[in-house]
Specification:
alpha/beta; TIM Barrel; 11 helices; about 40% helix; about 15% strand; oxidoreductase
């Protein structure tokens, strides 16, 4: 498993392999970060899927308004539905109705959410599915964790997570909606490749939309990585932090993406279907970086 070589970041050439790998990428926003963008059309390709992250305490009115704005500007909004911040099936149906009626939402990310104690009767993504609230949606995504999730598997294994993914695969086999797994970000290609291959071996065939942390200051990345529970690949950032000459140099995911892109090019059946960006250094910064890497 080769570590990212940050010394090569500025020298890694943009080529067709990376451009093809980034085709159809998605990106994530929150209402408060979206407010800072005057016009998304100046930053993103038309039709880009934009996830709208729902942080606990964000009013549903702000979430719906953000989704509507994205729709009006020509993008495909995909709001988060974190089970543990939704009171019950009645509130869930109300939120879904608002998104559909006011913003034309037809795609959703279903997840348990990072809240430890549910506010009501809902606790996980499959409970959201079982309410029937998403009947007729064109696309449903579920969360994945290439390096495990200690909020779910406290013992450091991934037994419960894998059981949950198996249930979601059974649902995917019966629904008319397109499904996929969108993942937490990581910083090392080897563990990601191993995890995606393991999914295939376990019979989990939903395509993977791999989470990637966009360009950001090292301190920012470390903060988010620790709070989000990034696993062993965190050592890539920690190693970089020990080099004082790199502390002020923004991290770029070029090498990680090139490693994954080359692997996908060599193995066309490899389970990664798309890239999903977490714009931790800012939406404009991330969008500009993507445009630079994919220009002819």
């Amino acid at each position: 498993m080769a570590l990212l070589n940050f010394r090569r970041e500025a020298e890694t050439p943009t080529n067709g392999t990376l451009t093809a790998f980034l085709d159809g990428f998605s990106i994530e926003v929150m209402p408060r970060t979206a407010e800072k963008i005057e016009d998304f059309r100046a930053l993103l390709p038309a039709g880009t899927r934009v996830y709208v992250a729902h942080i606990e305490g964000t009013p549903i009115e702000e979430m719906v308004a953000t989704a509507k704005r994205l729709r009006d500007e020509g993008f495909e909004p995909m709001p988060h539905f974190p089970a543990r911040i939704i009171r019950d099936a009645l509130q869930l149906r109300d939120w879904v109705a608002r998104y559909k009626g006011e913003a034309g939402v037809k795609q959703a990310l279903l997840l348990g959410g990072g809240v430890k104690t549910p506010v009501g009767s809902l606790d996980n993504a499959m409970q959201l599915v079982e309410t029937g609230a998403f009947a007729g949606f064109e696309r449903l995504h579920f969360a994945g964790h290439p390096e495990g999730n200690r909020d779910i598997d406290a013992d450091g294994t991934d037994e419960i997570v894998m059981q949950a993914l198996a249930l979601k695969q059974k649902f995917a086999d019966t629904t008319d909606a397109d499904t996929a797994i969108v993942t937490q970000f990581a910083f090392e290609a080897g563990p990601i490749i191993q995890w995606v291959d393991r999914l295939a071996a376990e019979g989990i065939r939903m395509p993977v939309h791999i989470g990637i942390a966009g360009p950001a200051k090292l301190q920012t990345l470390l903060k988010f990585a620790i709070s989000c529970g990034v696993g062993p690949s965190l050592k890539v950032l920690q190693k970089r932090a020990k080099d004082v000459t790199k502390l002020l140099t923004p991290f770029e995911p070029t090498d990680l993406l090139m490693d994954l892109a080359r692997h996908k090019a060599k193995h066309p059946d490899f389970g990664i279907e798309a890239v999903h960006f977490f714009p931790l250094g800012g939406i404009k910064t991330n969008a500009t970086w993507i445009a630079d890497k994919t220009k002819g």
